[in-house]
């Protein structure tokens, strides 16, 4: 059954300054909860983060959140978590790319900021739950345990980036938009009916702490240029690059390879080696992955005790694929029913049992088909 609390809760609503979090806070207040809005200041210099209503880290976002709280009629505060965000999200992002991996900063922000730093502070202040505008559902079972499920509207489901939440965190999480089978236009229409000025504010899709959207330029500023070779599967040099950190597994565009492939077909990034500072490219078929090992598993409830059949999602806006997965010695071993492409170390794999989120882990190594192995 879907959780329906018997008593009003003291709720801390994380308000990014966007339409989803504003409507979520309004719905929580309308449901009778004692809601307080809070905007997270995540940059010591907000001007360095996105402007033009594109993120959750700007001065105008803070002002939009405050205006929404005023309309809803709830108290509002700004909490400075800039140091924690820099250490746990931004520095982690840079370090992962430097190591040749492809991180997901939004997932890390949910884990370390919104449902760790923010939730810890909320509980210490006597709040019962943290409310966000994510599209996902928390379901209360008869035994009192809670499960995380996909949103009713699969097109807007955001359970992938919440797969890092454990059962304790789920016990204090509230997602008022998760049961809504509506379009984004209807959410905006609801915001307009409520008098929320953010009703027509553009959505944010890019990384909030990269002001101009240039990830490679952002990394180059912090890691410096380091020219290296681009090689094919045989090891022959086919081009050069200015930093291996600027590439991701499966990338096709922007390789700047002067030498065409023998078969004339496009080449893709197959491997990134920070040690030798080389990027290996090859045909699409060489990206086929049949299995992987993932580390740091986090379970949304009781951890599986043996192998089981699940579906897996490998990126925030990706589809599902059938897998067999098993926890082994603190790791997660996954075998794909059919080969998949573009799987990169550093990405998160999230397991599902139907609509229920079983848990997530960080991809460490992949196994490719013999014909595709490097």
Automatic annotation (TrEMBL):
This is tRNA-specific 2-thiouridylase MnmA. Its EC number is 2.8.1.13. Residues 156-158 are annotated as: Interaction with tRNA. Residues 217-282 form the tRNA-specific 2-thiouridylase MnmA-like central domain. The keyword Transferase applies. It is an enzyme of class 2 (transferase). It catalyses: S-sulfanyl-L-cysteinyl-[protein] + uridine(34) in tRNA + AH2 + ATP = 2-thiouridine(34) in tRNA + L-cysteinyl-[protein] + A + AMP + diphosphate + H(+). Pfam families: tRNA_Me_trans (PF03054), tRNA_Me_trans_C (PF20258), tRNA_Me_trans_M (PF20259). The keyword Transferase applies. Catalyzes the 2-thiolation of uridine at the wobble position (U34) of tRNA, leading to the formation of s(2)U34.
